[in-house]
Structure to design on (173 residues):
């Protein structure tokens, strides 16, 4: 099932909205620079903040979307919409499998963050897809109606490390 991209421009306030939420478009280079900045903090866990914000924002977006689209009812359709939303918003390609209330497996054959990191700064020694981890946690918590922070996502393989695909596992905390 496809995600329907709903964009509107609020002329009075000069704000672009996607799915009713104010949005700004950034290229992949800008986004990886944000990631590099968040990673450079020594005194706060910037990557955790990055991941948690991604979970929060994407959870809210998908929740709003599903409320507006009651035709997206079953697990298969919700996952399909979440995968298509990720692609439509320009983050890459993502595929969920073995999805259940206790967790899931996810791969990203294409990752906006990982491909750009490798192209710009070379191979990393650790995974880079913190935004995607947050996205995945947000999706699973929406589907099983759980609060923020209910799922832990770990990335085991990452394109930015030279792996063919990014590979994640989700488990309920
Ligand atoms: Zn990755």
């Amino acid at each position: 099932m496809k995600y329907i991209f709903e964009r509107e421009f609020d002329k009075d306030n000069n704000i672009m909205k996607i799915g009713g939420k104010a949005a700004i478009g950034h290229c992949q280079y800008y986004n990886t620079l944000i990631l590099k900045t968040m990673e450079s903090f020594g005194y706060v866990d910037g990557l955790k903040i990055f991941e948690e914000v991604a979970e929060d924002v994407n959870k809210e977006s998908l929740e709003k979307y599903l409320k507006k689209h009651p035709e997206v009812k079953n697990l298969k359709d919700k996952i399909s919409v979440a995968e298509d939303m990720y692609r439509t918003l320009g983050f890459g390609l993502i595929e969920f499998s073995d999805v259940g209330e206790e967790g899931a497996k996810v791969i990203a054959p294409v990752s906006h963050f990982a491909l750009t990191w490798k192209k710009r700064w070379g191979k990393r020694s650790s995974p880079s897809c913190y935004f995607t981890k947050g996205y995945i946690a947000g999706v699973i918590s929406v589907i099983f109606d759980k609060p923020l922070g209910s799922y832990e996502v770990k990335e085991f393989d990452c394109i930015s490390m030279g792996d063919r695909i990014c590979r994640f596992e989700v488990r309920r905390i």
Notes: The domain at 27-172 is CATH 3.30.1380.20 (Muramoyl-pentapeptide Carboxypeptidase; domain 2). The chain has a mean pLDDT of 93.
